# Entry
Amino acid sequence: MGGRRDRHNRGIRGRLAFPNPYTGAPVPLRARQTKAEFFMLCVHDALAQINDHCPRALRGIDVGIEDVPAAPPPWAPNRVALATAVSATPTTNGQVVVYRRPLERRARTRAGLRILVFRTIVEQLAEATGIAVDEIDPLGHRGSEDDDWD
# Structure
């Protein structure tokens, strides 16, 4: 009987959910979040948390997400950057760009990815704005759950 449900190792055959018994309408199945969507949620949550503790750290800073860095940094050609920060000038906003794929590769779990994204953004904001890391992250999240990521 098991071969009928998983013929040629192609996955489950047939319906995953029966129609609603009251309306007869098909039951919508919730789609799993993609890695990119989860990463964007991690960045959004990190920025919200930073905004709660130190809103001036985000003033005049544009935060962006890229999949991978365009080129290796000239100061470390054999290393992959996790993020980059550019300080603001009188005419332009500062920029922090986090790189999704390198951060995902270093995190072992989704919880570890959340922590790593938060720590990375805090460090880059500190670099771009000159505000101390302890002021941006007064709760000291950068020291918690180190075993979740490499």
Summary: DSSP finds five helices and three strands in the chain.
